[in-house]
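Hi C.,

You asked whether I'd gotten around to modeling the 138-residue construct. I have! Everything is below, sequence then structure, no commentary in between.
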Amino acid sequence: MAKPIPRVGSRRNGRIGLRKNACRIPKGVIHVQASFNNTIVTVTDVRGQVVSWSSAGTCGFKGTKKGTPFAAQTAAENAIRTVVDQGMQRAEIMIKGPGLGRDAALRAIRRSGMLLSFVRDVTPMPHNGCRPPKKRRV
């Protein structure tokens, strides 16, 4: 029987991880979305292409524990660790949402040793909001 031809991108021959470490990113943007149920940390380059991401759910937390500050801290550390290895030194932080993980994620990013140019709150705020439902008639 003939031998199968190995695929170029198969995991067996180890070529899959070569491209990830090839590009060096000096500056990036860290997006933290903190809801009451979960915290998602996404690291992008300046053009907005995702370099690394992590969430409380991918870190192994389940149920209501995903919304805790400790879960947000763990998610932020996981997302930052990979980009620091790729050479990111400076970053901007965009924080969105009302969740408990806002401050914990910010503290974890500060502890990573990365230089932060600014921290911006990009939580969407309604200027007048949606029209409320009509009054109940009993």
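If it helps when you're writing up: Helices lie at 69-85, 101-111.

Thanks,
B.
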